[in-house]
Design brief:
By secondary structure, this protein is α+β, with helices and mostly antiparallel strands. Among the domains are: 242 residues, Transferase(Phosphotransferase) domain 1 (Transferase(Phosphotransferase), domain 1), CATH 1.10.510; 112 residues, Helix Hairpins, CATH 1.10.287. The protein contains 18 helices and 13 strands. Bound molecules: adenosine-5'-triphosphate. Adenosine-5'-triphosphate (ATP) binds next to strand 5, strand 8 and strand 9.
Amino acid sequence: MATTLKNNVEDKQAALSPRLKGRENAKDTLCRNVTIYGKCRYEDKGCAFNHNIERSASENGQNDSQSKKTLNVDSPSFTPSFLSPNGANAAIKKSAGISPKAASAAPFMPKAIISRSSNATPLQDARTPDWAMVDVQEFVPRRAQEPPLVSWLCNPDNDSSTNENEIPVAHNFETFQPGPAPNPYLDHGINGAAFFQSNPSFQLPVQYHQYAPIGHHSSNLTPYQRTVHDLFIPNDLREEIQKKLAATLQTLPNSQLPSHIESYHSLVPLDTNHKSSTIFGGYTSWVYKAQSSTNGQYYALRRIEGFRLTNELAIRSGQAWKNVISASVVRIVDVFTNRGFGDSSLFIATEYHPLSKTLAEYHHIGPNWARPARNIKEQVTEPTLWSYVVQIASALKAIHSSGLAARVLDPSRILVTGKNRIRLNGCGVLDVVQFDSSSGAPVSQLQRQDLVNFALVILSIGSGIADAGANFARNMDMFKRFFKPELQNAVVWLYSAMQNQEKTIDQFVTLISNQMITAFNAALHTDDTLYSELSREVENARLVRLMAKLDSINERPEYEHDRAWSENGERYYLKLFRDYVFHQVDAQNRPVVDIGHIVTCLNKLDAGTDERITLISRDEQSCFIVSYRELKKGVESAFQDLLKRSAPLR
Ligand SMILES: Nc1ncnc2c1ncn2[C@@H]1O[C@H](COP(=O)(O)OP(=O)(O)OP(=O)(O)O)[C@@H](O)[C@H]1O
C-alpha cells in the first residue's frame, strides 16, 4: 500500500513553501518529509534537520542537481554522462586526479543493489504482456511499516528509520546503471572498435525520439535546432487534406433529395452549374456525393435522369467497368437503376475524389472562357500538358487492354484530383445508355475514336477552346504557337487514328516513351517528398497514442474514490507527472507553455529512460523522484488495468 505521506511531524511545521518559490526561506523552518523516493530537496542547501542518508554512487551528480534546481522547463535535462555527445562530462573531469590503476578497477556497485536484487520480489506475474518492461520493477511507494531498503529518509525529528511516524523512503535501485562502459582509450586490444556502432540491433537515440533531419531544412538554424513546424506536415498540405476531409463530411440538412438511393444515403449535389450536356447520349446527368450504409465509405453517384432499362445486358456491360483498375480512371463500383427520384434513373457509383474539378473548370475552357478571355498566364505549360498526355495514355491503355473503350473523353469529364493529377470520369455510361445502338460497333473502332478524342482533349486544353474539333486546322495553328513540335506531332498522330486502322494506344505509348520516363521520374520525386512529410508525422502518431493513454487513466471519475490514485496511493505520482508535463509554471507561478518540453517528456516516457525527474504535488506537500522507466511501467499497468475493467468495444 501507499506510503503515508502525512505524519505527525506536520503539526510541528510552521509554514509551507510555495511550489516553486520561496524555497530558501522554507528550508530552515520546514523539512516536511517531502521525499519518498529520493532525498530531502533542501538538504544540500543546509537543511537543519537530520538526514539519515546512506550515500550511494547513484546520487552523485544527477540527483543532487535534480534536487537543487527549481522545477522549471528551462532546467537542462539530465543526460547520462556516458551518452554525452560532446564527451565533456563530469566523469572525465573527475577522473583527472585518479591514479591510472584506478581505471582498471572493477566498477563500483553499491551494496544496496546487490542486496536488493537478491531479495527482489518481482512484481511481474505470468500474465505480463509483451509490452511490459519485465526488467523494471513498478514504482510503488512503500508502507511505513516496510523496512526501507535504503534509508533515504528525511526526518526532522528522528534519524531512526524504524519509527512509525516517519516516512520510509525506499529508493528503487533497479533503475541504477552501474556506469558507462570502460574507457575505450585504455583497451588497446579493441583497436578503436568502441567508437563505432558494433551492435546492429535497434538502439534508442540519445534524445529518445526519431526526429532525424531529413527533408527540407531551414538554413538559418543550427543543426540541433528545430522549429515546431519541423514536427508537423507543412501547413498547405495539411490545409488541403483538411479541406478535402471537411468536404467529404459535408451534409445537406433539410434537403429535398431522397433520403437514400439503394444503400446510399446523405446525398449532397456536386454539380454547381445546372446545364445539361449531350455527352451522355442526350441524357441529363447529375452528380451527388453519398455515403454507403454498407461500409460507411463515400462515393460519387452519377444519376442519368429518365433512363429506362430495356435490356438487362446493358447493366452488365456497365458492371464490366468495375474491373478497370487504373490510377488515372475514376473507378466504377456499382451500376444500377432506381426510382428514388420519382423517375426511372440510371445510377453509376464511382470513387469519390473530394474537391475535384473538371479539366474544363480548372483551365477555364468552355463557352465562358473562350480563347480571347484567356490570358497568357492561364496558358497551360508544356510539362503540365505532357503530364496529362502520359496520364490519359496510361488510362486508355488500361481501358483498352480490358477490351473496353472510354467513349467519354472530354475536358468536361476529366477530373483534376490533385496537383497535375487527372482521372478519366464518366466512362462506362455510354456503354449502358447506348447499349442497343452501339452493340454493333466494333470495340476497335471505338478505341480508335478514343485516340481521336484524346487528341482533341490535348488540343482543347492547349488552345483553350472547348470545341477544338470544330476547326482542327485553325486550332492546331494556334496550338503550334505555344508548344514544341514533339507535342504537336503527338496530337496530329492521335487525331489521324481514324484514317489508320493500325494505330493503337500501345503504339502511342511507345512513341512517347521519353515523356513517360520524365513523368515517372516526377512521380517518384513526389513520392519521395510525401514520404519525407510522412516521416515527420510518425513521431506524432506515437505521441498522440501515448497522450491518449495518459488522458484515459488520469482524472477518471470512476477512480475518484480509488485509493490508488489518491494522495496516499501508489498511482498518485502519475497524476503529478501529468502536471509536470502539461502544467509547468515558472518562478512567478506563470504558466509555461513549451511544446518542446511536452514532446521531450513524452518521448522519454515512451522510451522509458533512466533519467529521473522530480514531481511535486500541487500543495507542495509531496515530492517524488522517479525515473521515466518507472513512470512508463506505471502508465502501462494503469492502462492495462483500465482495459481490463472497460466495457467491450461496440
Ligand atoms: N467522382 C467524383 N468525385 C468527386 N467529385 C466529382 C466526381 N465526379 C464529378 N464530380 C464533381 O461533380 C461536378 C460535375 O461533374 P460532371 O461530370 O457532371 O461535370 P459538369 O461540368 O457538371 O458537366 P455537365 O454540367 O455537362 O453535366 C464536377 O465538377 C466535379 O466537381
